[in-house]
Amino acid sequence: MPAWLPYSGLPAKFREAGPRGRSAYLVLHRIMDLDEGRNSTPGLINLPLNELADLCALDPKELRQAIPILRRLKLLKCFLPDGDEETAAFQILTPLTVPATRQQIIAAWRLYAPHTSEAEPYLRYIDPPRAGQARCIPDTNFPDAMPLLIDLYFTHCGFKMNAFIIDHLNRVASTYTADEIRSAFRRAEKNETHNFREIHSWMRQAKAATRKPRNI
Fold first, then answer.
1. Most Cβ neighbours (<10 Å): which of 37, 133, 174, 181?
2. What is the pLDDT of residues 148-166, one digit of tens each?
3. How many CB atoms lie within 10 A of CB 55?
């Protein structure tokens, strides 16, 4: 968890949500811990739902009840599988929406943690990534293009997710390169479409075009 988070005003927001809010704050902590351990910049975290529940000292039902609070506060996007032993996907939304301003966070952080020595502290999830930062550990649960595809899917197609959609995305990420995926979503943005079937059809067309033999 980033050291500045307790001074962001978020704890009060979770307290207002009651017991489930406190569970949601704990879930946010754990996802941030995992993200900081796996990614040098905020990225996608994949792990079985029941594994995350164990890390939070919650049962899977309590975890599922806490997640909507994180979504409502616009802190997290995620895919929750039907089964608790199946892989879930989580990503912290950036820049993180918090009640306090950046200046207020830094002032409170220095007041209560005077050992903070950086002249201009870096606030992960609020500040843009520092130059040269990149994902340090590749995702091993899904194809290499899966984190990119899920991020673009959430951005352009919405947050609707189920096991069928995640399986479809998994097959797409296994078939197309990152450049092919980006190109299709750029076309979707230009044409103002949010239909993933149409976006996928553009990927197929582009892939087929590259395979056609050239006339000599």
1. 181
2. 888 888 888 876 666 677 7
3. 17
